[in-house]
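Narrative summary of target 7.
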Amino acid sequence: MTLDQIKPGKGGIIVAVNGEGALRRRLLDMGLTPKTKVVVKKTAPMGDPIELSLRGYMLSIRKDDAAKIEIEVIADDSGVVGIGR
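Modeled conformation, tokenized:
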């Protein structure tokens, strides 16, 4: 599943950052690296950009860029899909 498909309030762990060249480097430089926990906080009214919470800060990225980030969605003990502890 990719990051652009996650609903606000849900999240997971980054598995891979796809893309090429400068775009991939920019995403990695912003902290979107494999094994990082990320939560989608909210989306803009038209669906773009997406606000994320990761590594103790908030980050807004375009939906097209979020589509290049593969994540593993984690379910908690109650069966609710979201960020694991």
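Confidence is low (pLDDT under 50) at residues 77-85.
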